[in-house]
Design a protein that fits this description.
The complex is a heterodimer.
Chain A: H1 6-31, E1 34-35, E2 38-39, H2 42-49, H3 51-83, H4 87-101, H5 105-116, H6 121-129, H7 142-165, H8 170-178, H9 183-212, H10 215-220, H11 227-237, H12 241-269
Helix pairs in contact in A: 1-12, 3-7, 3-9, 4-7, 5-7, 7-9, 8-9, 9-12, 11-12
Chain B: H1 4-30, H2 48-55, H3 57-90, H4 96-104, H5 111-126, H6 130-154, H7 160-167, H8 172-183, H9 185-201, H10 204-207, H11 217-227, H12 232-254, H13 259-262
Protein backbone atom coordinates (compact mmCIF):
# COMPACT_ATOMS: atom_id res chain seq x y z
CA UNK A 1 0.00 0.00 0.00
CA UNK A 2 1.07 3.47 -0.81
CA UNK A 3 2.15 4.47 2.61
CA UNK A 4 4.20 7.42 1.45
CA UNK A 5 1.27 9.74 1.21
CA UNK A 6 -0.35 9.25 4.57
CA UNK A 7 1.83 12.01 6.05
CA UNK A 8 -0.11 14.37 3.81
CA UNK A 9 -3.24 13.53 5.81
CA UNK A 10 -1.58 14.57 9.06
CA UNK A 11 0.27 17.58 7.75
CA UNK A 12 -2.52 20.21 7.54
CA UNK A 13 -3.68 19.61 11.11
CA UNK A 14 -0.12 19.51 12.40
CA UNK A 15 0.92 22.69 10.59
CA UNK A 16 -2.20 24.52 11.75
CA UNK A 17 -1.46 23.75 15.40
CA UNK A 18 2.24 24.44 14.93
CA UNK A 19 1.70 27.88 13.38
CA UNK A 20 -1.22 29.05 15.47
CA UNK A 21 -0.64 27.34 18.81
CA UNK A 22 2.93 26.11 19.35
CA UNK A 23 4.79 29.04 17.77
CA UNK A 24 2.72 31.84 19.37
CA UNK A 25 3.10 30.21 22.78
CA UNK A 26 6.85 29.69 22.28
CA UNK A 27 7.32 33.28 21.09
CA UNK A 28 5.39 34.63 24.08
CA UNK A 29 7.30 32.42 26.50
CA UNK A 30 10.68 33.39 25.06
CA UNK A 31 9.78 37.09 24.96
CA UNK A 32 9.29 37.02 28.72
CA UNK A 33 13.04 36.33 29.10
CA UNK A 34 13.96 39.25 26.88
CA UNK A 35 14.04 42.81 28.20
CA UNK A 36 15.77 45.96 26.91
CA UNK A 37 17.65 43.99 24.26
CA UNK A 38 19.14 41.31 26.46
CA UNK A 39 18.26 37.92 27.87
CA UNK A 40 17.43 38.22 31.54
CA UNK A 41 15.46 36.76 34.40
CA UNK A 42 14.86 40.25 35.77
CA UNK A 43 11.15 40.14 34.90
CA UNK A 44 10.68 36.96 36.91
CA UNK A 45 12.76 38.31 39.78
CA UNK A 46 10.60 41.40 40.11
CA UNK A 47 7.38 39.38 39.65
CA UNK A 48 8.31 36.85 42.31
CA UNK A 49 9.41 39.50 44.82
CA UNK A 50 6.31 41.64 44.40
CA UNK A 51 3.88 41.02 47.28
CA UNK A 52 0.80 41.80 45.22
CA UNK A 53 1.75 39.29 42.50
CA UNK A 54 2.99 36.64 44.94
CA UNK A 55 -0.25 36.88 46.86
CA UNK A 56 -2.21 36.21 43.68
CA UNK A 57 0.06 33.32 42.67
CA UNK A 58 -0.35 31.66 46.07
CA UNK A 59 -4.09 32.36 46.16
CA UNK A 60 -4.45 30.68 42.76
CA UNK A 61 -2.46 27.63 43.88
CA UNK A 62 -4.36 27.46 47.18
CA UNK A 63 -7.73 27.64 45.41
CA UNK A 64 -6.73 25.01 42.83
CA UNK A 65 -5.38 22.62 45.47
CA UNK A 66 -8.49 23.01 47.62
CA UNK A 67 -10.80 22.57 44.63
CA UNK A 68 -8.99 19.40 43.52
CA UNK A 69 -9.03 17.95 47.05
CA UNK A 70 -12.75 18.60 47.46
CA UNK A 71 -13.45 17.12 44.02
CA UNK A 72 -11.55 13.95 44.97
CA UNK A 73 -13.32 13.65 48.35
CA UNK A 74 -16.78 14.17 46.83
CA UNK A 75 -16.12 12.48 43.51
CA UNK A 76 -14.64 9.22 44.74
CA UNK A 77 -17.62 7.86 46.71
CA UNK A 78 -20.10 9.14 44.14
CA UNK A 79 -18.25 7.50 41.23
CA UNK A 80 -17.98 4.27 43.27
CA UNK A 81 -21.73 4.32 43.90
CA UNK A 82 -22.62 5.11 40.28
CA UNK A 83 -20.22 2.56 38.79
CA UNK A 84 -21.96 -0.25 40.68
CA UNK A 85 -25.48 0.66 39.56
CA UNK A 86 -27.35 -1.25 36.87
CA UNK A 87 -27.00 -0.09 33.26
CA UNK A 88 -30.16 2.01 33.14
CA UNK A 89 -29.60 3.88 36.41
CA UNK A 90 -25.92 4.33 35.61
CA UNK A 91 -26.84 5.96 32.32
CA UNK A 92 -29.11 8.46 34.11
CA UNK A 93 -26.37 9.38 36.58
CA UNK A 94 -23.74 9.74 33.85
CA UNK A 95 -26.09 11.89 31.76
CA UNK A 96 -26.81 14.05 34.83
CA UNK A 97 -23.06 14.58 35.27
CA UNK A 98 -22.41 15.28 31.58
CA UNK A 99 -25.24 17.82 31.30
CA UNK A 100 -23.68 20.53 33.51
CA UNK A 101 -20.36 20.00 31.70
CA UNK A 102 -21.98 21.07 28.46
CA UNK A 103 -23.45 24.23 30.00
CA UNK A 104 -21.51 27.49 29.67
CA UNK A 105 -19.36 28.43 32.69
CA UNK A 106 -21.03 31.86 32.55
CA UNK A 107 -24.41 30.28 33.27
CA UNK A 108 -23.02 28.10 36.04
CA UNK A 109 -21.15 30.93 37.77
CA UNK A 110 -24.19 33.16 37.39
CA UNK A 111 -26.29 30.61 39.26
CA UNK A 112 -23.91 30.85 42.22
CA UNK A 113 -24.12 34.65 42.14
CA UNK A 114 -27.87 34.25 42.59
CA UNK A 115 -27.35 31.84 45.48
CA UNK A 116 -24.46 33.48 47.34
CA UNK A 117 -25.19 37.19 46.78
CA UNK A 118 -26.05 39.69 49.56
CA UNK A 119 -29.73 39.40 48.71
CA UNK A 120 -29.16 35.89 47.42
CA UNK A 121 -31.10 32.75 48.13
CA UNK A 122 -28.75 31.55 50.84
CA UNK A 123 -28.82 34.78 52.84
CA UNK A 124 -32.60 35.10 52.44
CA UNK A 125 -33.03 31.56 53.72
CA UNK A 126 -30.76 32.12 56.73
CA UNK A 127 -32.64 35.32 57.58
CA UNK A 128 -36.02 33.61 57.35
CA UNK A 129 -34.92 30.83 59.66
CA UNK A 130 -33.61 33.53 61.99
CA UNK A 131 -30.00 32.45 62.19
CA UNK A 132 -28.72 35.83 61.01
CA UNK A 133 -30.00 39.41 61.00
CA UNK A 134 -27.49 40.90 58.61
CA UNK A 135 -26.53 39.20 55.34
CA UNK A 136 -23.22 37.37 55.40
CA UNK A 137 -20.66 38.14 52.72
CA UNK A 138 -20.43 34.89 50.73
CA UNK A 139 -19.98 36.33 47.26
CA UNK A 140 -16.64 37.87 46.27
CA UNK A 141 -14.67 35.66 48.66
CA UNK A 142 -12.18 32.87 48.05
CA UNK A 143 -14.81 30.47 49.35
CA UNK A 144 -17.19 31.55 46.59
CA UNK A 145 -14.49 30.90 43.96
CA UNK A 146 -13.83 27.43 45.39
CA UNK A 147 -17.56 26.57 45.45
CA UNK A 148 -17.93 27.77 41.86
CA UNK A 149 -14.90 25.81 40.69
CA UNK A 150 -15.96 22.61 42.46
CA UNK A 151 -19.35 22.98 40.79
CA UNK A 152 -17.60 23.52 37.45
CA UNK A 153 -15.13 20.63 37.63
CA UNK A 154 -16.63 17.95 39.91
CA UNK A 155 -18.44 16.29 36.95
CA UNK A 156 -15.07 15.83 35.20
CA UNK A 157 -13.70 14.01 38.25
CA UNK A 158 -16.82 11.85 38.62
CA UNK A 159 -16.80 10.89 34.95
CA UNK A 160 -13.06 10.12 34.89
CA UNK A 161 -13.46 7.90 37.98
CA UNK A 162 -16.56 6.08 36.72
CA UNK A 163 -14.54 5.23 33.60
CA UNK A 164 -11.95 3.23 35.56
CA UNK A 165 -14.21 1.94 38.34
CA UNK A 166 -16.58 0.36 35.81
CA UNK A 167 -13.80 -1.96 34.75
CA UNK A 168 -12.89 -3.16 38.22
CA UNK A 169 -13.64 -6.83 38.68
CA UNK A 170 -15.58 -6.84 41.96
CA UNK A 171 -15.08 -10.59 42.31
CA UNK A 172 -11.59 -9.60 43.49
CA UNK A 173 -13.16 -7.63 46.32
CA UNK A 174 -15.44 -10.53 47.22
CA UNK A 175 -12.49 -12.93 47.12
CA UNK A 176 -10.45 -10.68 49.41
CA UNK A 177 -13.34 -10.42 51.85
CA UNK A 178 -13.98 -14.15 51.86
CA UNK A 179 -10.32 -14.54 52.76
CA UNK A 180 -10.86 -12.32 55.77
CA UNK A 181 -10.01 -8.82 54.54
CA UNK A 182 -12.20 -6.13 56.05
CA UNK A 183 -14.35 -3.96 53.81
CA UNK A 184 -11.96 -1.07 54.41
CA UNK A 185 -8.81 -3.11 53.70
CA UNK A 186 -10.24 -4.57 50.52
CA UNK A 187 -11.22 -1.09 49.38
CA UNK A 188 -7.76 0.37 50.06
CA UNK A 189 -5.89 -2.64 48.62
CA UNK A 190 -8.04 -3.32 45.55
CA UNK A 191 -10.49 -0.61 44.54
CA UNK A 192 -8.25 2.36 45.27
CA UNK A 193 -5.11 1.22 43.35
CA UNK A 194 -7.22 0.20 40.36
CA UNK A 195 -8.88 3.64 40.36
CA UNK A 196 -5.60 5.56 40.30
CA UNK A 197 -5.47 6.16 36.53
CA UNK A 198 -8.92 7.80 36.62
CA UNK A 199 -8.00 9.72 39.74
CA UNK A 200 -4.90 11.09 38.02
CA UNK A 201 -6.72 12.10 34.83
CA UNK A 202 -9.49 13.69 36.90
CA UNK A 203 -7.05 15.53 39.17
CA UNK A 204 -5.03 16.89 36.23
CA UNK A 205 -8.19 18.18 34.55
CA UNK A 206 -9.53 19.73 37.75
CA UNK A 207 -6.24 21.25 38.91
CA UNK A 208 -5.23 22.67 35.54
CA UNK A 209 -8.79 23.84 34.95
CA UNK A 210 -8.94 25.63 38.32
CA UNK A 211 -5.51 27.13 37.84
CA UNK A 212 -6.47 28.76 34.57
CA UNK A 213 -10.25 29.33 34.80
CA UNK A 214 -11.31 32.89 34.13
CA UNK A 215 -15.10 33.16 34.26
CA UNK A 216 -15.68 31.75 37.74
CA UNK A 217 -13.07 33.85 39.63
CA UNK A 218 -14.07 36.90 37.61
CA UNK A 219 -17.76 36.62 38.55
CA UNK A 220 -17.51 35.11 42.04
CA UNK A 221 -14.19 36.51 43.26
CA UNK A 222 -14.78 40.23 42.78
CA UNK A 223 -11.54 42.04 43.55
CA UNK A 224 -9.91 38.79 44.65
CA UNK A 225 -7.79 38.23 41.60
CA UNK A 226 -6.26 34.96 40.43
CA UNK A 227 -3.62 34.39 37.73
CA UNK A 228 -6.06 34.38 34.81
CA UNK A 229 -7.87 37.57 35.85
CA UNK A 230 -4.48 39.14 36.59
CA UNK A 231 -3.34 38.25 33.04
CA UNK A 232 -6.38 40.04 31.64
CA UNK A 233 -5.92 43.07 33.87
CA UNK A 234 -2.20 43.45 33.15
CA UNK A 235 -2.56 43.17 29.38
CA UNK A 236 -5.85 44.76 28.37
CA UNK A 237 -6.50 47.12 31.28
CA UNK A 238 -2.96 48.22 32.16
CA UNK A 239 -1.25 47.60 28.82
CA UNK A 240 1.61 45.91 30.63
CA UNK A 241 2.33 43.26 28.00
CA UNK A 242 5.69 42.25 29.43
CA UNK A 243 4.28 41.31 32.83
CA UNK A 244 1.33 39.65 31.06
CA UNK A 245 3.77 37.43 29.10
CA UNK A 246 5.44 36.43 32.37
CA UNK A 247 2.05 35.48 33.84
CA UNK A 248 1.15 33.49 30.71
CA UNK A 249 4.49 31.66 30.87
CA UNK A 250 4.04 30.82 34.56
CA UNK A 251 0.58 29.41 33.77
CA UNK A 252 1.89 27.27 30.89
CA UNK A 253 4.89 26.01 32.86
CA UNK A 254 2.71 25.27 35.90
CA UNK A 255 0.34 23.29 33.66
CA UNK A 256 3.16 21.13 32.30
CA UNK A 257 4.70 20.63 35.75
CA UNK A 258 1.36 19.43 37.14
CA UNK A 259 0.83 17.00 34.26
CA UNK A 260 4.39 15.70 34.80
CA UNK A 261 3.99 15.27 38.56
CA UNK A 262 0.62 13.54 38.20
CA UNK A 263 2.06 11.11 35.66
CA UNK A 264 4.92 10.31 38.04
CA UNK A 265 2.46 9.72 40.88
CA UNK A 266 0.40 7.47 38.64
CA UNK A 267 3.43 5.37 37.74
CA UNK A 268 4.44 5.04 41.39
CA UNK A 269 1.01 4.01 42.64
CA UNK A 270 0.23 1.70 39.77
CA UNK A 271 3.37 0.27 38.15
CA UNK A 272 1.31 -1.67 35.63
CA UNK A 273 0.07 1.66 34.29
CA UNK B 1 -23.04 -6.21 50.23
CA UNK B 2 -26.12 -4.26 51.19
CA UNK B 3 -25.99 -2.66 54.60
CA UNK B 4 -26.20 0.69 56.35
CA UNK B 5 -23.05 2.00 54.68
CA UNK B 6 -24.76 1.80 51.33
CA UNK B 7 -27.44 4.17 52.63
CA UNK B 8 -24.71 6.65 53.53
CA UNK B 9 -23.22 6.33 50.05
CA UNK B 10 -26.65 6.77 48.45
CA UNK B 11 -27.34 9.86 50.55
CA UNK B 12 -23.98 11.36 49.65
CA UNK B 13 -24.47 10.67 45.94
CA UNK B 14 -27.86 12.38 45.98
CA UNK B 15 -26.47 15.38 47.89
CA UNK B 16 -23.64 15.76 45.37
CA UNK B 17 -26.06 15.60 42.45
CA UNK B 18 -28.29 18.10 44.22
CA UNK B 19 -25.27 20.39 44.48
CA UNK B 20 -24.54 19.92 40.75
CA UNK B 21 -28.07 20.31 39.39
CA UNK B 22 -29.78 22.45 42.07
CA UNK B 23 -28.24 25.76 40.93
CA UNK B 24 -29.39 25.09 37.37
CA UNK B 25 -32.92 24.35 38.59
CA UNK B 26 -32.91 27.62 40.53
CA UNK B 27 -31.93 29.49 37.37
CA UNK B 28 -34.87 27.93 35.54
CA UNK B 29 -37.29 28.97 38.31
CA UNK B 30 -36.05 32.57 38.68
CA UNK B 31 -36.12 33.12 34.90
CA UNK B 32 -39.94 33.17 35.09
CA UNK B 33 -40.08 35.78 37.87
CA UNK B 34 -41.63 39.21 37.20
CA UNK B 35 -39.23 41.29 39.35
CA UNK B 36 -36.17 43.25 38.24
CA UNK B 37 -34.02 41.24 40.61
CA UNK B 38 -33.56 37.51 41.08
CA UNK B 39 -36.25 36.44 43.53
CA UNK B 40 -36.48 32.88 44.76
CA UNK B 41 -39.19 31.78 44.97
CA UNK B 42 -40.48 34.28 42.37
CA UNK B 43 -43.40 36.57 43.23
CA UNK B 44 -45.46 35.62 40.21
CA UNK B 45 -45.05 34.42 36.68
CA UNK B 46 -43.81 36.35 33.68
CA UNK B 47 -42.17 35.73 30.34
CA UNK B 48 -40.92 39.28 29.98
CA UNK B 49 -37.25 38.38 30.55
CA UNK B 50 -37.48 35.97 27.66
CA UNK B 51 -38.72 38.72 25.38
CA UNK B 52 -36.08 41.04 26.85
CA UNK B 53 -33.37 38.79 25.38
CA UNK B 54 -34.52 39.83 21.93
CA UNK B 55 -34.54 43.50 22.86
CA UNK B 56 -30.88 43.62 23.85
CA UNK B 57 -29.41 44.03 20.39
CA UNK B 58 -25.91 42.95 21.45
CA UNK B 59 -27.25 39.51 22.35
CA UNK B 60 -28.58 39.08 18.83
CA UNK B 61 -25.38 40.36 17.20
CA UNK B 62 -23.07 38.22 19.29
CA UNK B 63 -25.35 35.21 18.94
CA UNK B 64 -24.89 35.44 15.16
CA UNK B 65 -21.13 35.77 15.54
CA UNK B 66 -20.99 32.79 17.93
CA UNK B 67 -23.01 30.64 15.53
CA UNK B 68 -20.90 31.71 12.53
CA UNK B 69 -17.65 31.00 14.37
CA UNK B 70 -18.90 27.65 15.65
CA UNK B 71 -20.18 26.48 12.24
CA UNK B 72 -17.34 27.79 10.08
CA UNK B 73 -14.74 26.73 12.65
CA UNK B 74 -16.31 23.30 12.87
CA UNK B 75 -16.15 22.90 9.12
CA UNK B 76 -12.45 23.81 9.00
CA UNK B 77 -11.64 21.74 12.10
CA UNK B 78 -13.32 18.78 10.41
CA UNK B 79 -11.29 19.30 7.22
CA UNK B 80 -8.12 19.31 9.32
CA UNK B 81 -9.10 16.73 11.91
CA UNK B 82 -10.85 14.03 9.90
CA UNK B 83 -7.82 13.12 7.68
CA UNK B 84 -5.57 13.31 10.75
CA UNK B 85 -7.82 11.00 12.78
CA UNK B 86 -7.98 8.60 9.83
CA UNK B 87 -4.19 8.48 9.41
CA UNK B 88 -3.70 8.02 13.17
CA UNK B 89 -6.10 5.07 13.30
CA UNK B 90 -5.14 3.47 9.98
CA UNK B 91 -1.35 3.51 10.01
CA UNK B 92 1.46 2.75 12.41
CA UNK B 93 4.45 5.02 12.24
CA UNK B 94 7.08 6.75 14.33
CA UNK B 95 5.96 9.74 16.42
CA UNK B 96 2.38 8.50 16.26
CA UNK B 97 1.88 9.03 20.00
CA UNK B 98 3.61 12.40 19.89
CA UNK B 99 1.38 13.60 17.07
CA UNK B 100 -1.70 12.31 18.86
CA UNK B 101 -0.61 14.18 22.00
CA UNK B 102 -0.19 17.39 19.99
CA UNK B 103 -3.67 17.06 18.47
CA UNK B 104 -5.22 16.50 21.90
CA UNK B 105 -3.12 19.15 23.69
CA UNK B 106 -5.47 22.14 23.16
CA UNK B 107 -7.69 20.57 25.85
CA UNK B 108 -4.94 21.10 28.42
CA UNK B 109 -3.40 24.34 27.13
CA UNK B 110 -5.06 27.12 29.17
CA UNK B 111 -7.60 28.82 26.90
CA UNK B 112 -6.83 32.21 28.34
CA UNK B 113 -3.12 31.82 27.50
CA UNK B 114 -4.02 30.65 23.99
CA UNK B 115 -6.22 33.70 23.47
CA UNK B 116 -3.56 36.01 24.86
CA UNK B 117 -0.79 34.61 22.62
CA UNK B 118 -3.03 34.71 19.54
CA UNK B 119 -3.84 38.35 20.22
CA UNK B 120 -0.15 39.19 20.59
CA UNK B 121 1.05 37.08 17.71
CA UNK B 122 -1.68 37.40 15.08
CA UNK B 123 -3.60 40.57 15.74
CA UNK B 124 -0.94 42.89 17.12
CA UNK B 125 2.17 41.61 15.30
CA UNK B 126 0.64 40.62 11.96
CA UNK B 127 -2.48 42.81 11.84
CA UNK B 128 -4.78 39.89 11.13
CA UNK B 129 -8.46 40.90 11.51
CA UNK B 130 -10.02 40.14 14.89
CA UNK B 131 -12.68 37.86 13.39
CA UNK B 132 -10.03 35.66 11.74
CA UNK B 133 -8.10 35.50 15.01
CA UNK B 134 -11.24 34.49 16.89
CA UNK B 135 -12.00 31.85 14.27
CA UNK B 136 -8.46 30.42 14.48
CA UNK B 137 -8.66 30.26 18.28
CA UNK B 138 -11.93 28.35 18.09
CA UNK B 139 -10.62 25.93 15.44
CA UNK B 140 -7.69 25.08 17.74
CA UNK B 141 -10.19 24.45 20.53
CA UNK B 142 -12.33 22.16 18.36
CA UNK B 143 -9.55 20.01 16.83
CA UNK B 144 -9.06 17.72 19.88
CA UNK B 145 -12.80 16.95 20.08
CA UNK B 146 -12.99 16.15 16.36
CA UNK B 147 -9.84 14.02 16.39
CA UNK B 148 -10.71 12.15 19.58
CA UNK B 149 -14.33 11.35 18.81
CA UNK B 150 -13.65 10.34 15.19
CA UNK B 151 -10.63 8.25 16.23
CA UNK B 152 -12.76 6.35 18.72
CA UNK B 153 -15.30 5.76 15.96
CA UNK B 154 -12.56 4.57 13.57
CA UNK B 155 -11.21 2.24 16.25
CA UNK B 156 -14.37 0.16 15.83
CA UNK B 157 -13.96 -0.04 12.06
CA UNK B 158 -12.49 -3.16 10.54
CA UNK B 159 -10.12 -1.83 7.90
CA UNK B 160 -10.20 -5.12 6.00
CA UNK B 161 -13.48 -4.00 4.39
CA UNK B 162 -11.44 -1.16 2.92
CA UNK B 163 -9.05 -3.66 1.37
CA UNK B 164 -11.98 -5.69 0.10
CA UNK B 165 -13.39 -2.63 -1.69
CA UNK B 166 -10.02 -1.83 -3.22
CA UNK B 167 -9.44 -5.38 -4.38
CA UNK B 168 -12.78 -5.07 -6.18
CA UNK B 169 -11.44 -2.08 -8.04
CA UNK B 170 -12.41 1.00 -6.02
CA UNK B 171 -9.65 3.60 -5.70
CA UNK B 172 -8.52 5.10 -2.37
CA UNK B 173 -10.79 8.14 -2.49
CA UNK B 174 -13.81 6.19 -3.58
CA UNK B 175 -13.15 3.63 -0.86
CA UNK B 176 -12.92 6.36 1.76
CA UNK B 177 -16.15 8.04 0.72
CA UNK B 178 -18.17 4.89 0.05
CA UNK B 179 -16.85 2.55 2.73
CA UNK B 180 -15.19 4.50 5.55
CA UNK B 181 -17.31 7.64 5.78
CA UNK B 182 -20.72 5.94 6.06
CA UNK B 183 -19.33 3.69 8.77
CA UNK B 184 -18.13 6.55 10.94
CA UNK B 185 -20.86 9.09 10.24
CA UNK B 186 -22.25 8.83 13.76
CA UNK B 187 -18.79 9.60 15.17
CA UNK B 188 -18.54 12.61 12.87
CA UNK B 189 -21.95 13.93 13.95
CA UNK B 190 -21.08 13.53 17.63
CA UNK B 191 -17.65 15.12 17.17
CA UNK B 192 -19.18 18.08 15.36
CA UNK B 193 -21.85 18.55 18.05
CA UNK B 194 -19.37 18.33 20.91
CA UNK B 195 -16.96 20.78 19.35
CA UNK B 196 -19.87 23.07 18.47
CA UNK B 197 -20.88 23.18 22.15
CA UNK B 198 -17.28 23.69 23.23
CA UNK B 199 -16.88 26.62 20.85
CA UNK B 200 -20.27 28.08 21.61
CA UNK B 201 -19.75 28.01 25.39
CA UNK B 202 -16.13 29.03 25.71
CA UNK B 203 -15.13 32.29 27.34
CA UNK B 204 -11.39 31.93 27.88
CA UNK B 205 -10.18 31.81 24.26
CA UNK B 206 -12.58 34.49 23.05
CA UNK B 207 -11.82 36.91 25.87
CA UNK B 208 -8.71 38.38 24.26
CA UNK B 209 -9.99 37.96 20.72
CA UNK B 210 -12.96 40.29 20.94
CA UNK B 211 -13.08 43.98 20.29
CA UNK B 212 -15.47 46.62 18.99
CA UNK B 213 -18.15 44.87 16.94
CA UNK B 214 -16.60 41.42 17.36
CA UNK B 215 -17.62 39.49 20.43
CA UNK B 216 -19.23 36.17 21.27
CA UNK B 217 -22.42 35.45 23.16
CA UNK B 218 -20.73 34.13 26.34
CA UNK B 219 -18.48 37.22 26.46
CA UNK B 220 -21.54 39.44 26.03
CA UNK B 221 -23.37 37.52 28.77
CA UNK B 222 -20.36 37.90 31.05
CA UNK B 223 -20.28 41.66 30.50
CA UNK B 224 -24.03 41.91 31.02
CA UNK B 225 -23.93 39.97 34.30
CA UNK B 226 -21.22 42.24 35.68
CA UNK B 227 -23.42 45.33 35.36
CA UNK B 228 -27.03 44.10 35.34
CA UNK B 229 -28.44 41.59 37.72
CA UNK B 230 -31.90 40.96 36.29
CA UNK B 231 -33.34 37.61 35.15
CA UNK B 232 -32.49 38.19 31.45
CA UNK B 233 -29.38 36.06 31.78
CA UNK B 234 -31.43 33.41 33.60
CA UNK B 235 -33.87 33.33 30.68
CA UNK B 236 -30.97 33.12 28.24
CA UNK B 237 -29.47 30.31 30.31
CA UNK B 238 -32.71 28.34 30.11
CA UNK B 239 -32.75 28.65 26.31
CA UNK B 240 -29.14 27.43 26.22
CA UNK B 241 -30.03 24.50 28.50
CA UNK B 242 -32.87 23.44 26.19
CA UNK B 243 -30.48 23.63 23.28
CA UNK B 244 -27.93 21.52 25.22
CA UNK B 245 -30.49 18.84 26.07
CA UNK B 246 -31.33 18.46 22.37
CA UNK B 247 -27.62 18.18 21.53
CA UNK B 248 -27.13 15.60 24.29
CA UNK B 249 -30.00 13.57 22.92
CA UNK B 250 -28.37 13.45 19.48
CA UNK B 251 -24.95 12.69 20.98
CA UNK B 252 -26.47 9.80 22.92
CA UNK B 253 -28.08 8.47 19.74
CA UNK B 254 -24.90 8.74 17.67
CA UNK B 255 -21.95 8.21 19.99
CA UNK B 256 -23.50 7.18 23.28
CA UNK B 257 -22.95 9.26 26.40
CA UNK B 258 -20.78 6.49 27.81
CA UNK B 259 -18.11 7.86 25.46
CA UNK B 260 -17.35 10.39 28.18
CA UNK B 261 -16.40 7.72 30.68
CA UNK B 262 -14.58 5.47 28.22
CA UNK B 263 -12.26 7.65 26.18
CA UNK B 264 -9.07 8.88 27.81
Amino acid sequence: MNKKYFYLLLLPCFLFLLIFMVIPILVTTLSSFYLDGRITLEGYRSFLTDHYFLNILFRTLRISLLTTTICIILGFPVAYYVSKLNVKLKFIFIAAAVFPLLISPVVRSFSWMAILGREGIFNTLLKKIGIINEPIQFLYTELAIVIGLVHLFLPLMIIALIGVMENIDYDLVKAAQSLGASRFTSFIKIVFPLSVPGLVVGSVLVFVGSLTAYTTPQLLGGSRRVMSTLLYQQSLTLNNWYTASIIATIMIVATFIIIGIMNKIAQKLNPKG
Amino acid sequence: MKNERNYLLTLMTFLVYFFLLGPLLIIIVVSFGPDRYLAFPPNGFSLKWYSNIFEVSMFMTTFKISITIALLGNFIALLLGLPAAYALSRYNFRFKNTLNAIFISPILIPGIVLGFTLLKFLIISYNIPMFTGLLIGHIILMIPYIVRVISSSLANLDFSIEEAAMSLGANRFKTFFIIVLPNIHSGIIAGVLLSFLESFNTVDVSLFLSGPGISTLPIQMLNYVEYNFDPTIAAMSVLLMVFTVIFMFVIERTLGLTFFTKSR
